[in-house]
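Lab manual, section 2.4: Encoding a predicted structure.

Procedure: take the sequence of the chain (409 residues), apply the prediction step described in section 2.3, and record the output as structure tokens. A sample record is shown.
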Amino acid sequence: MHAWPASEVPALPGKGRDLRIHDTATGGRVTLAPGPVARIYVCGITPYDATHMGHAATYNAFDLVQRVWLDTKRQVHYVQNVTDVDDPLLERAIRDGIDWVGLAERETALFREDMTALRMLPPQHYIGAVEAIPGIVPLVERLRDSGAAYELEGDIYFSVDADPHFGQVSNYTTELMRHLSAERGGDPDRPGKKNPLDPMLWMAAREGEPSWDGASLGPGRPGWHIECVAIALDHLGMGFDVQGGGSDLIFPHHEMGASHAQTLTGEFPMAKAYVHAGMVALDGEKMSKSRGNLVFVSKLRRDGVDPAAIRLALLSHRYRDDWEWTDQVLQDAVERLGRWRAAVSRPDGPSADALVEELREALSDDLDTPTALAAVDRWAVLQTAGGGTDDSAPGLVSRAVDALLGVAL
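Recorded output:
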């Protein structure tokens, strides 16, 4: 599966700072100091609807992580999946009377268009669950043969008790885990399971649903969590720098994925930091496909909204915070974009060297984008007041805002 084209990231003078970021597993900030190549895995979409603001906010957060790393003169090895076969996708295809493969391809293509418009840096490896199945099957067989998984009426379940570190990503109580499992695709009440929290690794073929050759597992399709594990281990290995996604993936997805990988390899942890973006609400409720309370990137673009303004709207909130999308949020971003573009259009202005360092410091401090935007705002005010004669300043500001914030002025 191919990703989307990369926008050029301008080179800036000097060098950026190592990223200090909140790690869900420890509950505090960690300083990430990767080697020459930083490794990141971000969980991708289930393509049964268009990209909404919640998606955009999540991918914006991890785009910033990449930009901070690139500014430290590192390379970035970024991997993202597409869950192109899963219950929600199949259910939507049945509801709409269309082929599930066509639905997945259509929505994945639209996602690529949205990511390109928003100047999100693409992954080096963009892998669909279906194309990963040949690598998933042997992992499930290994877990089963080692006693870390078991069969129940043809389905294969992972035993969470096989991983001594289970629970150390979310640090949730068993009660909360069970509640979230039921809410987010698990089946804690299924009779016969060894532990209600045990997740499915391989679903035996169901009538009327797609299935694949599972070798000794029998025909079927993979569970949600093992999909990402197979892709991450294949392309990044254990101990990669950041596992990323929205905060709704903390449990069960990232918890279970870590346990799968740790049990398979005997290594701990799967990732050095588990980083999660907050949820975006609309009309007081989390924006989600199931509720239907969505603001789509593609719809805003069709309505003539500049993608740079959409990105500024996302950047106006700290990535870890839950926040609410409103017309005012977008209007403020449109106006800010206009002020910034007017400021950099002049032939000279106040020196921007200090501004570049302010941006670097803000972003290295747990991606503090509101502080970064405020710094550019202050420079723009000085520029409007005629506060300088540095003819290199407008160009440097434009390059810095593009390189570090992904906003083209």
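Check your result against the sample. The longest helix spans residues 53-71.
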